[in-house]
Design brief:
Two copies of one chain form a homodimer. Chain A has eight helices and nine strands. With about 210 residues, chain A is α/β, with parallel strands linked by helices. Chain A has a domain of about 140 residues: Rossmann fold. In chain A, helix 1 crosses helix 7 and helix 5 packs antiparallel against helix 6. The longest helix of chain A has 16 residues. The termini of chain A are close together. The interface between A and B is large, with 45 and 45 residues.
Chain lengths: ~210, ~210
């Protein structure tokens, strides 16, 4: 039996407004696919309880983070409450070269930066099923002030039109269906002729004795 | 709940060498998807037992067939043992306009004709898992002479390189996996931003009371 190999993996960026359900969907997605890795962010904040360097985050000093930024080693970055977060290019290069696909779940602004620095990525917009559901999800996170909630909601409202910059759209009304669609997108992208080593495959086929 | 509508359906052409397993895969595929129709061929041959006009084939006279050909109403055609077969354009136009996707399973030469007349189609190449398996499948059809079998096998051998003209490739080593990949390709294509009525969707979302 000859197996069809891919030339390399790809980066799949899953984005959408706050409250669209990116985290839940993306965590479930990893359970349903082989040959997949999650992108690991670099951050200047100290590790929280149970957080492992290189697994949950790459914990780096502020100097190191700035160095990475200046050397073009980050696909995107942002500062939240005084801590910097960014997506290292090197992990994605290394992992896709080894034939794995990398999932990156990130907000709209981050995705925009990633697109400019890694245009070969596949960009999926996760769409909330209704504004009521979006409002509920933002409100019940329980970690934001009333002001922060209404700012988030306003931003999500404005970010809906960003979908037109994406390759695919998935409406997150039912978790199982949304994950199934995301899985389908990855399986389909893996099946693209341009991504597969078909010269090698056909050579092997024809070399077999019948 | 707002649902995301597509602007229209698409034509998905599933092709591959004789013996790749097109029929089996395509029949199973229809069971796993909604909003799908099979293309119905026009033919000049008389109906066989149990064959229903408009369901299994459109049975037409030779004059009518030639008329359709000359009027550009066929996406492809071929003559086999003195009978003509062709794919009517009108059914695909009408069905995709109504939001259904149309599956057409066809040989490599037919697919080539369809591509030139319906370039918006999605073209999937079904690849045999090995030449031994291909040989076995061609040989055990039980409807061909030894000469016909070896001609078919030689043609299949030569047609492997046609895969480079296709969008997607699926290796048919395991029926269930092959059907799953085909289903994934259709689900993914349906999720493309360019195919969805997102202006309408977002307008509906924003018109909801929260």
């Amino acid at each position: 039996m000859t197996s069809l190999r891919r030339k390399q993996g790809f980066l799949i960026v899953i984005s959408g407004p706050s409250g669209a359900g990116k985290n839940t969907v993306v965590n479930e997605l990893g359970q349903r696919l082989d040959k997949i890795r999650y992108s690991v962010s670099a951050t200047t904040r100290p590790p929280g309880p149970g957080e492992v360097d290189g697994v949950h985050y790459n914990f780096v000093t502020c100097e190191k983070f700035q160095e990475m930024q200046e050397a073009g080693e980050l696909l995107e970055w942002a500062t939240v409450y005084g801590n910097s977060y960014g997506t290292p290019r090197e992990f994605i290069e290394r992992t896709t070269t080894r034939g794995y696909d990398v999932i990156l779940d990130i907000d709209i602004q981050g995705a925009r930066q990633v697109r400019s620095r890694w245009p070969a990525g596949i960009f999926v917009y996760l769409m909330p099923p209704s504004m009521g559901e979006l409002w509920k999800r933002i409100r019940t996170r329980g970690r934001d002030s009333a002001d922060a909630i209404s700012t988030r909601f306003k931003l999500a409202w404005d970010e809906l039109e960003a979908v037109f910059d994406y390759d695919y759209v998935v409406v997150n009304s039912d978790l199982d269906e949304a994950v199934d669609s995301l899985r389908a997108i990855i399986v389909a992208e893996r099946s693209k002729v341009a991504r597969c080593d078909l010269l090698g495959f056909i050579k092997n086929l024809k070399g077999q004795t019948v």
